Amino acid sequence: MDYQKILSKITPTRQEKEAIKRFTNKLIKTINQIAEKKNIKAKATLVGSVAKGTWLKGEADIDIFIKFPLETSEEKLKKDGLQLGYECIKAMNGKAEERYAAHPYVTGHIKGYEVDLVPCYDIKDASQLKSAVDRTILHTRYIKKNLKKEQIKEVLLLKRFMKALGAYGSEFKVGGFAGYLCELLIIVYRNFERVLEAAALKWRKGQIIDIEDHGTGKYFNDPLIVIDPIDKNRNVAAALTQQKLSEFIIVARNFLENPKEDYFQEVEYSHDKEKIQTKFKERKSKCIILEFNPPNVPADTLYPQLKKTMDTLVSHLSMEGFKVNRSSYWTDEEKNSLIIFEFETWKLPAYRRHMGPRIWSRKHTKRFHKKYGNRIWVEGDRLFVERKRKTTKPETCLKSLLRGVEYLGVGKHVKEELKKGYRILDINEYLKGEPSQEVLRFLDAFLDPGKHLWRS
Hints:
Layout: H1 4-10, H2 14-37, E1 43-47, H3 48-52, E2 62-68, H4 74-91, E3 95-100, E4 104-110, E5 113-121, H5 135-146, H6 152-165, H7 179-189, H8 192-202, E6 207-209, E7 224-228, E8 231-235, H9 242-257, H10 273-283, E9 286-292, H11 299-319, E10 324-331, E11 337-343, E12 351-358, H12 362-372, E13 377-379, E14 382-388, H13 394-403, H14 412-420, E15 423-426, H15 427-430, H16 437-447
Parallel strand pairs: 2-5, 6-7
Antiparallel strand pairs: 1-2, 3-4, 4-5, 7-8, 9-11, 9-15, 10-11, 12-14, 13-14
Helix pairs in contact: 2-4, 6-7, 7-8, 8-9, 10-16, 11-14
């Protein structure tokens, strides 16, 4: 397949590269000048995909790390790092936003760019690590040294392919391939197609890739194990979920069998409410929406809590007899969160069979008889009785569970929002309202969970 057409769409233009170079040079110069003026021992440096030249056209994430000497206390690093970040953004007429990773950092919105200004320690190797972000400088250095100039276009193809699949990004929301991981895969397999061939034909569960032969792969238990060349104790693919790895392998096979440009474009989901309503009706199942406000926490805190909440509720509903076929969650991270449940079983009889003790224990059988009287019977060597269900409908069961949300194993911050209020709606009732286009696309994706895997 000729990739030139795709590369022409995803490779930054010369003008974009030059503009970003001027902008990042000015950022670095501004920070260093402020540091010198304030007598702060720190120096700014460019890291990440922009430093390596591996960013996709129009999607430059600018990461400036502010390096502090190793002897700097953590408290001083945080204080001075934030000060330099805020003052740099102010000097360049930008808007500042404080965020948190291993420690606080500042994101600046300046002249249409989003810039992360992150304080770190000036380490020379992994043995000097003081926080997770410190590795980034070593990562940048390693890629610049080992990734050949002609391989940059192979990285861009792989990143675009991953992005079209929805598997690009190591944040919890995605659970996919980090940019650094994509770059390492190109170094190992030399080009885009060979990465796909390895995944499609050779990778097995727990596949180990150890570029520098550190020999530590056996100590990890992840779907894919890629030992960090600069830190033998770290798996670069630790955030990659089995789900996203499996999807990548399937799509790699599909592409190699029938290469198409379509595999480099995200699939489109419908936001036609009437069509989505029809699809739900055709399924003839029961779908319920739990709607509530999202807590005001960072995305990498929010998404794990939404998943934990969903998994806990699915488990409890299933224990009560309401078997869940599939479930999913969505949030706009600001005003709205949804969890959808599709039930295989949603109509239950008024009574349920309750298993008692084995007949061999006189003490326990006597206690069971005292509690339930002559309604009990024997099957094999066990006693049984019928007990009236608390509820026969999943909506009522869900309400009952949420009344005791304090004692459920749901996300800490999500729990507080659920205590404030929520709505439980049948999908047909929910769609009578005015859900946003983003919600409708989420529902369409829920109805067609494999759509992004095929380009027939």
